[in-house]
Amino acid sequence: MKSYEVNFDGLVGPTHNYGGLSYGNVASQSNSQQSSNPKEAALQGLAKMKALMDMGFQQGMLAPQERPDVAALRRLGFAGSDAQVIQRAAKEAMPLLVASCSASSMWVANAATVSPSADTADGRVHFTAANLNCKYHRSIEHPTTSRVLGAMFADQQHFAHHAALPAVAQFGDEGAANHTRFCRAYGEAGVEFFVFGRSAFDSRYPSPQKYPARQTLEASRAVARLHGLSEEGVVYAQQNPAVIDQGVFHNDVIAVGNGEVLFYHEDAFLDTDRMLAELGDKIAKVGGKFQPVCVPRSAVTVDDAVRSYLFNSQLLSRADGSMLLIVPEECRGNERVWNYLQGLTGSGGVIREVKVFDLKQSMQNGGGPACLRLRVALNETELAAVNPGVIMTAPLYESLTQWVERHYRDRMTENDLADPQLLLECRSALDELTQILKLGAVYPFQIN
Fold first, then answer.
1. pTM over 0.90, yes/no
2. I want to staple 270 with a disulfide (CB 3.0 to 4.6 A). Which of 44, 168, 238, 416 is the partner?
């Protein structure tokens, strides 16, 4: 039976704005308060999805969230009609309104952690929605994320869904941005690689001094237990606290893995040699041959990596066994990074080609190609059980492009977020989107 790694990309929402909400994310903070272009952002994301589909990769999508989140504002004491809630929040607590309007759910690498059926005890694909409790604007996402994932992967014979972990600092969980999987083939048993920034209960693990470590060891272990993963099928590694303090807020900003390959920066991890040895040993036990590709700091600095998002790329397996690296335009604009990539693809190694995509709207808010996608390994039977409305096709691409053109603004500032009309526009757009994607009622305004 054939198996695939399907990339489900997040569709950028109608309220895409540069709120500068993510402390520790250099791009997010440095572009705070600039004018954004939601329409361009959504079309850039759709163009990437369509391009990968045209290259022969299986491609799906995740719907955005309802924003502004009026229910969240009500929980914080703002009362009245929806319009009055928005207007009062704008007058009394603009930062809370900005947070309630964030379109950060577009970065679905943070939506959940996914374990394929070949790894789990019950032979189903397991999903755990990430609590994202390090940042308020992201912590309000997981209830809708769970409903959307449930509507996409509804067949309980093949899919199992877990609620987000307790929303406390000790179990901070950022989803697949700190998780990858190594395997010889997607349908075979693999080794799941969990990267954490700190331990909540064990003082032996150091913590960063400037920026928060968002993922805890305890959260990673809890997800592995929920998914029924075996001890031999899991490796835990700590992210280097020094690189977190340089703006590497998730592991997918400093490393990316696929198949038997780990593409990583020399300074990405603590105790790197031990971690590589453990990965190599466990991958060998499931029939694979581990291939680490280390980018030396002498060629690319951590600052280069953060500014270019070299490692926030998609590493994709092609039919001939080689790999394709999908990078943002910012990589071509960084001389050291681009020189390194030219040498890498010309060296005869496993990464043979680089393709560049313009994702400027997402990049300016701190998310690149890897942030925009959630990887789900599926066999043919499981893929057939996925809601077909969310699998990218040429007609769906055309429908979504037209939908964006109808519903999205081409300019968004902080002042625009205070317009109650924006909520009505967003709800109208999402109501139509759920019909296009055949999701049913997944948004609060459709349920309540």
1. yes
2. 238
